[in-house]
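Box 3.1 A note on notation
Throughout this textbook, protein chains are presented in two layers. The first layer is the amino acid sequence; the second is a token string describing backbone geometry. Keep the layers aligned when reading.
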Amino acid sequence: MLMVVALCVLVTWIACAMILVGVGSLVLRGLTSSFHFTDAFWTGLVASVAFLEIWSLVFAVNSTADCLLALAGAVGLCVNMDWLAQKVAETRCSKSTFAVYAVIVSVIALRAAGPCEHYDTGLYGAQAVRWMTSYPAIFGLANVHARLGLNTSVFLCHAALNQGPWKDLYFHLFPGLLICALWIPILGAVSRVIRQDSVLTSDWFYTILLIPTNWWSTRGDVVGTTTDEPTAIVALVASGILFQWFQDRDQESASSAAWGSRLFTGAALLLLSVTFKLSIVVFAVMALGIIVVIIWRLEGRSGFLRPLYAAFVLLLVPWLARGIITSGYPFFPSTMFAFPVEWRVHARYAQVSALMIQSWARIPDVLPAQTRGLAWLHPWVHAAVLNRPAFQVPVAIALLGAAAILLLRSRCSKPLRRLSALWLLFPSITGLLFWFLEAPGLRFASAIIWTTAATLGALGFAISSEVLRPLLPRVIAGGIFIATLWCGFGWPHSYKILKSVHGFVALPVASVAARPAQSGLVVYVPIRGNQCWNATIPCTPYFSQTLRLRQPFDFRRGFTSEGLPPQII
């Protein structure tokens, strides 16, 4: 039965990928006749999320929204069928590479068929999806549970998948789909590095990304409403596009129009990453600024700026509107730019919520008072240095790459052009500083950490391979493969839990008790722990007696509350 579930997951991924490619091809063909096939997938994802953001302000995310997206994808495939078929035919992929990719996707599909162990899915993710599929954006929803005000469009993607045969089973699909898409450029780069077949500096960048991608595939959360992996993936794809611009534009066989479309895709993905998780905003904004300057300077291609402005408006404006509707703040739990609306979450509640997130990121499962000042720094460093995929390996790669750049840069050809990709370090280092000061949980900064490591490592390894040929490239590749396996130790648990799969696995059921607020509103509260999972709405572990409906018997009009729930005071 496990194989049947995995096959259903795989078939759904193929259908979703075709829809996204169709939608993306419609957008990109409207800008240029030359673009990469994989960029159509990522552009389609951005366009689909923008559509869902706008749709969810007026309607619940339902099967009608899915049908409209499927129709747009079908139109895109039909209109661009010949062109897409040509692009697929031009794609150089050996049978062995395709076989490896098929095995990887099958393994991820097997893992995606398993039960949900992602904690935050039970804490608030499943509840957020249930609200989105039941109602349009709810005024003051964060008054019910502050985490429901964490405005992430990842949940909209889950809500769109929570239809038809995947009703209440959506959490098996989205993270794995993005991981499978990320494997495509990585396997192509690894193949060229192994064969030493016209290896570009960007191939080293993607080869280094083999390490976190393998970890996500074998040990990461592929089941659940996780926001960390999707955010990291879309940001890394955007970083890869920007790195390729700096390194490989002279070797690019396509015209500057192709680079314009690629950079547009990268910029759109950076915008998308902000809507996925606000913690990446500094890195995304600075990297986006670099792309805007490059597009503006591309001779005769400044026309790509207007579509980029349109993407900004269509994606970020409804996202900001959703944040204001659900909490009264555009960047909740930050209280900046608070709107004077009746349903706005109490400022103290927002501040305490931000403090709890920061405290958890510094030292999990302790009281916020224990993480004030610098007392948290020593235990944080101790925990960080023991983390292989998020600290040990990327730091080692970054240091090795930096050493190679400093020692060998004068002996390589075109050192200024080759090292121009170091511009990526400006958003990376600034983003890391913001992350460290605000909420230094390692999983919150995967994209920034690995962009830094891949940038320095790729430049250092490429220079070393050029200066110290012929043996060194394969030695470096071997070291990356060893690091990949080393980070993957501990993987058996990910597969042992599959033994219990005898069909489609639903979310765990939470035991809840009904509690009336002072207004008479009935709220469901977990009897044990703080996870509501897929319980009847409204459900919250942080019950407030002052919670009330803005209009009696009408969830659509939303909630308001005074003060803080006693559980978090």
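The chain has a mean pLDDT of 89. The chain has two domains: 2-345, 513-568.
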